[in-house]
Amino acid sequence: LPGLHVVAIAFALEVSVGKTNTVMALNNSDVLLPCIFSTCIGFQDLVFTWYFNSTELVGARLTPCPASLPLQIYHGKIKSKASEPFLVGRNPRVEFVGSTTGKENNISIVLKNVEFSDAGKYTCHVKNPKEKNAQHNATIFLTVVQKMVETDNTVTLIIVGVVGGLIGLLILFMLIKRVVLFIIKKTQDGK
Q: Span of the secretion signal (predicted)?
């Protein structure tokens, strides 16, 4: 059953950046770029790399965007589940904040003192030799702003309140109609 073996390998390694793939940061602040991975059969000599402005995984490598070259900002390796990741190479403004000996295989990084030029696409790429070099990636988009703007949801809350109220009134009207029809029917049956 070679086909089943291939399917098992394809679903064994997963990489995720969480519930949302967008992050907003203030200029000159630090920002967390989350990434976790999971594997069904464990890992050994796993390699992970963070790229800035790279495109999708093609074959065994990441290909560059036509407008810019991919920038490797962090490169690490993990010997086994019992050991923490060790640094192979990194950008000086990037700090590793994950851990792989706990519950989750966290390979998140913090980008220090973000600038407007740091806005873009960040790709967390993971390769597991134990799974016949299965490799996957997840992407997160960073937006850098001068100041955070608080959104005013007043109009949305008013609309939701009005619609909810109308639906409630409609249900109440239907219930009253049913009760009135039930009473009329019972009175006519009694005569």
A: none
150: in domain:
no
Q: What single-letter amino acid sits at 62?
A: L
CA distance 36 to 20: 13
CATH code for position 80: 2.60.40.10
pLDDT tens-place string over residues 127-161: 988 888 778 889 999 999 988 666 677 888 888 88
d(CA 90, CA 94): 7
Instruction: State whether 167 and 120 are in the same domain.
Output: no
Question: 86: number of CA atoms within 13 Å, CB side?
Answer: 5
Give me the number of domains the chain comprises. Answer: 2
pTM metric for this prediction: 0.65
